[in-house]
Amino acid sequence: MIGPVISARQRQRIEDLVAAGIGAGAQVVAGGKRPPGLDRGYFIEPTVLRIEDNANPVAQQEVFGPVVTVQGYRDIDEAVAIANDSEYGWAAASTPPTCQPDGCRASHPQRHSTSQPLGRLGLHPDRRFKQSGIGRERGVAGLREYQEIKHLVVGP
Q1: Shortest CA distance to 94 belongs to which of 106, 112, 111?
Q2: Exposed, middle or buried by CB within 10 Å (0-12, 13-18, 19+), for 145?
Q3: 63 vs 17: CA distance, rounded Å
Q4: 61-116 per-position pLDDT tens digit
Q5: Three-state DSSP state, 50
Q6: Which residues pair with 99 in a beta bridge?
Q7: Burial of 111 by CB count in 10 Å (0-12 exposed, 13-18 middle, 19+ buried)?
Q8: How far apart are CA 34 and CA 15, in angstroms?
Q9: What SS3 string covers 82-103?
Q10: CA–CA distance from 127 to each of 71, 93, 124 (Å)?
Q11: I need a labelling partner for 28 at 20 to 30 A (CA). Which of 15, 66, 70, 89 fits?
Protein backbone atom coordinates (compact mmCIF):
# COMPACT_ATOMS: atom_id res chain seq x y z
CA MET A 1 0.00 0.00 0.00
CA ILE A 2 1.16 3.49 -0.74
CA GLY A 3 -0.35 6.80 0.17
CA PRO A 4 -0.66 10.02 -1.81
CA VAL A 5 2.07 12.58 -2.40
CA ILE A 6 1.85 15.87 -0.50
CA SER A 7 0.06 18.10 -3.02
CA ALA A 8 -1.34 18.48 -6.52
CA ARG A 9 1.75 20.52 -7.40
CA GLN A 10 4.08 17.69 -6.31
CA ARG A 11 2.03 15.10 -8.19
CA GLN A 12 2.28 17.25 -11.32
CA ARG A 13 6.04 17.60 -10.82
CA ILE A 14 6.37 13.80 -10.60
CA GLU A 15 4.21 13.32 -13.69
CA ASP A 16 6.32 15.90 -15.56
CA LEU A 17 9.57 14.16 -14.58
CA VAL A 18 8.20 10.76 -15.63
CA ALA A 19 7.06 12.26 -18.95
CA ALA A 20 10.50 13.85 -19.46
CA GLY A 21 12.13 10.51 -18.71
CA ILE A 22 9.89 8.73 -21.22
CA GLY A 23 10.56 11.47 -23.75
CA ALA A 24 14.29 10.82 -23.32
CA GLY A 25 13.87 7.09 -23.94
CA ALA A 26 12.83 5.55 -20.60
CA GLN A 27 10.56 2.53 -20.80
CA VAL A 28 7.73 2.20 -18.29
CA VAL A 29 8.04 -1.17 -16.58
CA ALA A 30 5.24 -0.49 -14.09
CA GLY A 31 2.97 2.38 -13.09
CA GLY A 32 3.54 5.83 -14.48
CA LYS A 33 0.10 7.35 -14.14
CA ARG A 34 -2.67 8.22 -11.73
CA PRO A 35 -4.42 5.12 -10.39
CA PRO A 36 -7.97 4.64 -11.67
CA GLY A 37 -10.72 5.15 -9.13
CA LEU A 38 -8.74 7.42 -6.81
CA ASP A 39 -10.21 10.82 -7.65
CA ARG A 40 -9.55 12.32 -4.21
CA GLY A 41 -6.02 12.82 -2.96
CA TYR A 42 -2.80 13.19 -4.87
CA PHE A 43 -2.08 9.62 -5.88
CA ILE A 44 0.35 8.38 -8.48
CA GLU A 45 1.10 4.74 -9.14
CA PRO A 46 4.42 3.35 -7.93
CA THR A 47 6.52 3.66 -11.06
CA VAL A 48 9.51 1.74 -12.39
CA LEU A 49 11.37 3.17 -15.38
CA ARG A 50 14.07 1.33 -17.30
CA ILE A 51 16.67 3.79 -18.55
CA GLU A 52 19.64 3.36 -20.86
CA ASP A 53 21.99 5.83 -19.21
CA ASN A 54 22.30 8.47 -16.55
CA ALA A 55 21.70 11.30 -19.04
CA ASN A 56 17.97 10.64 -18.70
CA PRO A 57 16.41 13.60 -16.82
CA VAL A 58 14.54 11.38 -14.38
CA ALA A 59 17.90 9.88 -13.33
CA GLN A 60 19.33 13.32 -12.60
CA GLN A 61 16.56 14.69 -10.35
CA GLU A 62 15.27 13.97 -6.88
CA VAL A 63 11.73 12.92 -7.75
CA PHE A 64 10.32 12.77 -4.19
CA GLY A 65 7.64 10.35 -5.28
CA PRO A 66 7.10 6.64 -5.87
CA VAL A 67 9.44 6.46 -8.88
CA VAL A 68 12.60 4.38 -9.32
CA THR A 69 14.88 3.92 -12.28
CA VAL A 70 16.56 0.69 -13.26
CA GLN A 71 19.76 0.83 -15.27
CA GLY A 72 22.15 -1.89 -16.32
CA TYR A 73 25.92 -1.79 -15.98
CA ARG A 74 28.83 -3.86 -17.30
CA ASP A 75 30.95 -4.10 -14.18
CA ILE A 76 31.26 -2.71 -10.67
CA ASP A 77 33.47 0.16 -11.84
CA GLU A 78 30.73 1.33 -14.17
CA ALA A 79 28.12 0.90 -11.40
CA VAL A 80 30.14 3.13 -9.07
CA ALA A 81 30.62 5.71 -11.85
CA ILE A 82 26.85 5.75 -12.47
CA ALA A 83 26.15 6.17 -8.76
CA ASN A 84 28.50 9.15 -8.60
CA ASP A 85 27.22 10.81 -11.78
CA SER A 86 24.80 13.22 -10.13
CA GLU A 87 24.84 16.42 -8.16
CA TYR A 88 22.78 14.57 -5.57
CA GLY A 89 23.96 11.91 -3.15
CA TRP A 90 21.52 9.07 -3.39
CA ALA A 91 21.81 5.54 -2.13
CA ALA A 92 21.99 2.82 -4.76
CA ALA A 93 21.78 -0.94 -4.74
CA SER A 94 23.58 -3.59 -6.71
CA THR A 95 22.14 -6.97 -7.63
CA PRO A 96 23.26 -10.03 -5.63
CA PRO A 97 26.34 -12.02 -6.65
CA THR A 98 26.22 -13.55 -10.12
CA CYS A 99 26.31 -17.33 -10.06
CA GLN A 100 27.48 -19.35 -13.04
CA PRO A 101 28.22 -23.09 -13.33
CA ASP A 102 31.88 -22.37 -12.48
CA GLY A 103 31.06 -20.50 -9.26
CA CYS A 104 29.73 -17.22 -7.88
CA ARG A 105 31.27 -13.80 -8.35
CA ALA A 106 30.36 -11.24 -5.75
CA SER A 107 30.53 -7.56 -6.45
CA HIS A 108 32.08 -5.41 -3.75
CA PRO A 109 31.38 -1.72 -4.33
CA GLN A 110 32.61 -0.91 -0.84
CA ARG A 111 36.18 -1.53 -2.07
CA HIS A 112 35.92 1.51 -4.31
CA SER A 113 36.74 4.94 -2.97
CA THR A 114 33.78 7.14 -3.91
CA SER A 115 31.97 10.11 -2.52
CA GLN A 116 28.73 8.13 -2.73
CA PRO A 117 29.16 4.43 -1.99
CA LEU A 118 26.53 2.10 -3.34
CA GLY A 119 24.01 1.44 -0.59
CA ARG A 120 22.66 -1.86 0.62
CA LEU A 121 19.11 -2.83 1.32
CA GLY A 122 18.10 -3.12 4.96
CA LEU A 123 18.24 -0.94 8.05
CA HIS A 124 21.45 0.96 7.50
CA PRO A 125 22.24 4.63 7.78
CA ASP A 126 20.84 6.54 4.82
CA ARG A 127 23.75 8.61 3.57
CA ARG A 128 23.04 12.17 2.51
CA PHE A 129 25.69 13.77 0.34
CA LYS A 130 26.13 16.52 -2.18
CA GLN A 131 22.90 18.48 -2.89
CA SER A 132 20.76 15.86 -1.12
CA GLY A 133 21.33 17.33 2.31
CA ILE A 134 23.48 16.38 5.23
CA GLY A 135 23.45 13.83 8.00
CA ARG A 136 22.31 10.28 8.31
CA GLU A 137 18.97 8.63 8.95
CA ARG A 138 17.94 5.17 10.18
CA GLY A 139 20.08 2.79 12.14
CA VAL A 140 22.31 3.61 15.09
CA ALA A 141 24.20 6.33 13.20
CA GLY A 142 20.91 8.05 12.42
CA LEU A 143 19.79 7.98 16.05
CA ARG A 144 23.10 9.44 17.17
CA GLU A 145 22.38 12.54 15.06
CA TYR A 146 19.69 13.38 17.64
CA GLN A 147 21.73 12.57 20.74
CA GLU A 148 24.00 14.76 22.77
CA ILE A 149 26.52 13.16 25.10
CA LYS A 150 26.27 14.41 28.62
CA HIS A 151 28.47 13.29 31.51
CA LEU A 152 27.15 12.91 35.02
CA VAL A 153 29.47 12.08 37.88
CA VAL A 154 27.84 10.64 40.98
CA GLY A 155 29.95 10.06 44.03
CA PRO A 156 30.75 11.01 47.60
Answers
A1: 106
A2: exposed
A3: 7
A4: 888 899 999 998 888 888 888 888 878 765 555 555 555 566 555 555 544 444 44
A5: strand
A6: 104
A7: exposed
A8: 9
A9: HHHCCCEECCCCCCCCEEECCE
A10: 21, 13, 9
A11: 89
